[in-house]
Every structure is written in structure tokens, then in C-alpha cells.
Design goal:
Blueprint lengths: L33 E5 L8 H12 L5 E7 L2 E6 L2 H8 L4
Antiparallel strand pairs: 1-3, 2-3
Protein name: DUF4283 domain-containing protein
Organism: Gossypium trilobum
Length: 92
């Protein structure tokens, strides 16, 4: 199993373009507090459990919305800059 992941690095860039559907009524002046993340596991990720666990770990000030993009990729919408910065700086 270790040999399967030997060439995998977190710094490795993906060249695939990922398009996210946004609401047509959003204002251009609003801060973009969004991330796309993925899980590097061969196991199945149970979306409702993951969503609940991540929200409990992060304790977002104004909440977080998490959408399943498929292929173990997830869209995270934050509603406060502090929440986004905390996650980027190394929160689980």
C-alpha cells in the first residue's frame, strides 16, 4: 500500500480546471471566502459525516457551507474571513 502513495505529494499541482457554479445574484463587492479541498484516501468518504466533523473541528464563527463536487473533492464556503484564515493556517 505504501508504494501506491510513494509518488504523492501535497505540493504537486493539478492541471485540471475545476468550475464552480455560483449564484447569478451575487454582488461583485462581496469577499470570496471559498476553498476547494480533497481527501487523499482510498476509502469512501461519507459526506454527511465529513461535513458534520469538519464543522465541529473548525467551529466557524458564522458557519460553513460544504458541497460535494464528486471524486472526493469538496467546496467550502465560509462566511467570515477569520474562519477562512484559520483553516488555511493549518486547522484540521
Amino acid at each position: 500500500m505504501e508504494t501506491d502513495f510513494a509518488g504523492l505529494t501535497l505540493e504537486e499541482e493539478e492541471y485540471e480546471i475545476l468550475q464552480i457554479q455560483t449564484d447569478a445574484g451575487t454582488n461583485g463587492d462581496v469577499e470570496i471566502l471559498q476553498l476547494v479541498g480533497c481527501f487523499l484516501t482510498a476509502s469512501i468518504v461519507h459526506f454527511p459525516v465529513m461535513r458534520s466533523t469538519m464543522a465541529n473541528l473548525w467551529h466557524p464563527v458564522r458557519g460553513v457551507q460544504i458541497r460535494d463536487l464528486g471524486e472526493k473533492r469538496y467546496f467550502f464556503q465560509f462566511f467570515h474571513l477569520i474562519d477562512l484564515e484559520r483553516v488555511i493556517k493549518g486547522s484540521p
